[in-house]
């Protein structure tokens, strides 16, 4: 192995992004609940529930005591909306995490000590000369040493199309 590689690894570290902590399901529920419309619905449901319970308690004998049902129905709808939204966000986050894990297992060709080696993208280090084929996604910052008929699509970085 290249003796300078160990020094570069020690000084610059690994080619890994820090792992983002995933939000818990309860945090996602809280985020979903903090929608202005849901807060307004919750306030109106509480008022409706309070009025319905008051009317049920103060109702005369023989009268129906179901005025509280409207408030409960709205509360149940809010709970379903919050749970569905949080579950959807949690599932999306989980899929993105799996996709990012797959991206970590790519292999690239680098030149170390004058010879080509196939290594994991996470083992690329400062000073490595990387061989890039057509259609490859470059997962490092670097300096272009040599190219032939080069065309780079930077739209994912710059946001420009065309």
UniProtKB/TrEMBL annotation:
Q: Which compartments is it annotated to reside in?
A: Endomembrane system
**InterPro entries per UniProt:** ATPase_P-typ_cation-transptr_N (IPR004014), ATPase_P-typ_TM_dom_sf (IPR023298), ATPase_P-typ_transduc_dom_A_sf (IPR008250), ATPase_P-type_domA (IPR059000)
Span of the signal peptide: none
Where's the Cation-transporting P-type ATPase N-terminal domain?
5-48
**Membrane spanning residue stretches:** 37-56, 68-88
A single Pfam family, by name?
Answer: E1-E2_ATPase
Main subcellular location: membrane
Tell me what topology the record assigns in the membrane: Multi-pass membrane protein
Q: Name one GO biological process term.
A: intracellular calcium ion homeostasis
| Record GO cellular component, one term | endomembrane system
What Gene3D superfamilies does this protein's entry cite? Calcium-transporting ATPase, cytoplasmic transduction domain A (2.70.150.10), Calcium-transporting ATPase, transmembrane domain (1.20.1110.10)
Q: Where is the P-type ATPase A domain?
A: 105-161
Q: Which UniProt keywords apply?
A: Magnesium, Membrane, Transmembrane, Transmembrane helix
Q: Which GO terms describe its molecular function?
A: P-type calcium transporter activity
Q: What is this protein called?
A: Uncharacterized protein
Taxonomic placement = Eukaryota, Metazoa, Ecdysozoa, Arthropoda, Hexapoda
């Amino acid at each position: 192995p290249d003796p300078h590689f160990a020094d570069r690894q020690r000084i610059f570290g690994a080619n890994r992004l820090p792992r983002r902590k995933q939000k818990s399901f309860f945090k996602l529920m809280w985020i979903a609940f903090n929608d202005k419309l849901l807060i307004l619905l919750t306030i109106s449901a509480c008022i409706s529930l309070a009025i319905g319970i008051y009317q049920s308690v103060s109702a005369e004998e023989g009268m129906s005591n179901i005025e509280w049902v409207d408030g409960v129905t709205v509360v149940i709808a809010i709970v379903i909306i919050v749970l569905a939204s949080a579950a959807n966000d949690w599932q999306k986050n989980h899929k993105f995490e799996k996709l990012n894990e797959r991206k970590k297992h790519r292999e690239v060709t680098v030149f170390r000590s004058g010879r080509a080696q196939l290594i994991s993208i996470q083992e690329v280090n400062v000073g490595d000369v990387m061989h890039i084929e057509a259609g490859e996604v470059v997962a490092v910052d670097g300096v272009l040493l040599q190219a032939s008929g080069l065309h780079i699509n930077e739209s994912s970085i710059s946001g420009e199309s065309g």
